[in-house]
Amino acid sequence: MRKFFTAVLFLLGVTPIGNGHAADAALSYTDQASSLIGHVTVVDARSEDACLHSTIRGAHCLPAASFLGPHGRLASFREIYWLLGTAGLPEQAHVLVVGDDPTERDFVAGMLYLCGQRKISILTVPVSRGAGLKQTQMGEGTGRGMTRNPIYQGVVREQRIVLRSELAQALATAHPPSILDGRSENEYWGERIRAMRGGHLPDAQPLPMLKARAQIAKADLQLPLRSGAVVYANDPFETIAYFTLLRAGAGADIRVFTDGWIDWANHPSLPMDSVTYPDPLVIGKLAQQPATRMNQDQIALLLGGFLMLVTLSAGFFYLGKRRS
Fold this sequence. Notes:
Helices cover about 40% and strands about 15% of the residues. By secondary structure, the chain is of the alpha/beta class.
């Protein structure tokens, strides 16, 4: 009966995800780390200060922000490889990624996966709660060095990455890829805008990250996707974390549009559905507020100076009259 049900779902284009669905062997979640300690390289995705103060003893401090440049843009792979080298990571090692915030933790794990790290385990128990380990296994973290030691030589998993130009071409074909949107429902429908425009990619299906995480935890997630589907969220940080969640937690055969919605929305020529725009009146008011306050200050300063000048002039005039 189960095989029949699975076959029906397959014909309908639905991939059932549950306890029996194997995740990617190179990227997976775990809630037990005691047996791994001493046999893996530990990476702490929290801030460097938090990592240096208290983490799994000897963990490499590699904050999520280290991978991002100005305005949240993803650094180049060349720069990221230098980063991984200064963090002391060998590409052939089995890495255990830990942290407190699931999005930060999953983002760092996803970056390591895309950079070609051989195997990544993701600890679901927060470090601030002891990571499920003995107190003797906790200690200070290790910061990055000034030079690469060793030189990171992983091979990028290019087959898992979709570029903007590639995705635009694929959407224009007779058989475009399935697309999954990991943002909130309000963002999907353009009610909340965090980019130049609101809306979603053509025919994308919504599955918010928080909802997907809850369904994976209960082992009842079902993805209506074909093999090789593309996933995205708002920006590189959220997008890669979303990719990791579905890849490690559900074993989904997916690719990732790493730049996310914010990059797509900033190109007016690209197609999208449910298009909305920020309220120009609100934008105008926000833009005028700093200038208005500055003008008022300048006026007050000029008025004060003028009154002082009038007062001094009147005083000199009065003294001149008395002398005469």
